[in-house]
Amino acid sequence: MKMEVELCGMTLKNPVMTASGTFGSGEEYAEFVDLNRLGAVVTKGVAAVPWEGNQTPRVTEVYGGMLNAIGLQNPGIDLFIERDIPFLKQFDTKIIVNVCGHTTEEYVEVVKRLAKEPVDMLEINISCPNVREGGIAFGQDPRMVEAITREVKRHAAQPVIMKLSPNVTNIADMAKAAEAGGADALSMINTLTGMKIDIGRRKFVLANRTGGLSGPAVHPIAVRMVYESAQAVKIPIIGMGGILTAEDAIEMLLAGAAAVAVGTANFTNPRATMDIIDGIRSYMEEYQVADVRELIGAVHN
């Protein structure tokens, strides 16, 4: 059985990777997960300078998942290059760096800094709903999606994956805009904007008031958006959103995703990615699927 998939001209040993912001840069999971078995590790968001993130409390459980308003807290590109890249280079897996910024110039600065670094792909986060300025506007306007994609591509040495916001009316329009701007691939979906209120205190649970909803509750929405986008563009899609099991991952592949990313599941089961890889293999054995690529976009009425 062949588990390898092609993404942006590179061969991944399987279609399973981590979702940005849920796995750090792998070090804290290394005792639970064999990073060598992953198709890729997607790092936490990296900015031009350190970001402190939002005030606490900034995480809460909700029905079917969690809300987070972390605000892309990160130590900045200097420490990332010094500490995280050398750690990840110890393993036989692809490295995808998630890039964030408040302005086009901030994105480009990080992309330029990474041009000569030994990383494989860049995931440009234009969709996080927790940052009060910048990113959310890029991700919700197709003209801005196309413009920032084109500008990042001008400076990027690695393939560019645009991470799209689900907080839009028509996801296919955003996918087509990113493709028009030169994106090599798409990843979707990021979190959906949500809110939780403490009725006893009559106060917002999160200091930020709103946060990003992730977990099983968003999975059907994510599958629909991946399917709609796969019908609209020719570039590959990394599907994510509420993937807890191999069944969830296979559903994403059938909808048209070329690979999948596991996020919130890592918090409840640190071995989720390993279980999903094994589960996909078991499914292929049961249904006599010789090549995992046979599953991509294979849904039918």
Give the ordered list of helices and strands: EEEEEEHEHEHHEHEEEEEHEHEHH
Mind summarizing the main beta sheet? 8 strands, parallel
Q: Within the largest sheet, what's the order of strands? A: 3-16-15-10-9-8-7-4
The assigned CATH architecture is Alpha-Beta Barrel
**CATH superfamily, called what?**
Aldolase class I
Q: How many domains would you count in the coordinates?
A: 1
N-to-C terminal Cα separation, in Å? 26 Å
What is the third-level CATH name, the topology?
TIM Barrel
Radius of gyration over all CA atoms, rounded: 18 Å
Low-confidence stretches: 129-135
Given the structure, what is the number of helices?
Answer: 9
Mean pLDDT score? 94
Helix content: 25-40%
Instruction: Tally the beta strands.
Output: 16
- Strand fraction equals 15-25%
> What is the approximate shape?
globular
Structural class call reads alpha/beta
Q: Please give the CATH class.
A: Alpha Beta
Question: How is this structure best described in words?
Answer:
- It is a single chain.
- With 301 residues, the chain is an alpha/beta fold.
- It is 32% helix and 20% strand.
- Helix 7 links the parallel strand 15 and strand 16.
- Helix 4 runs parallel beside helix 5 and helix 7 crosses helix 9.
- The longest helix is centred in the C-terminal third of the chain and has 15 residues.
- It is globular.
- About 2% of the residues have low confidence.
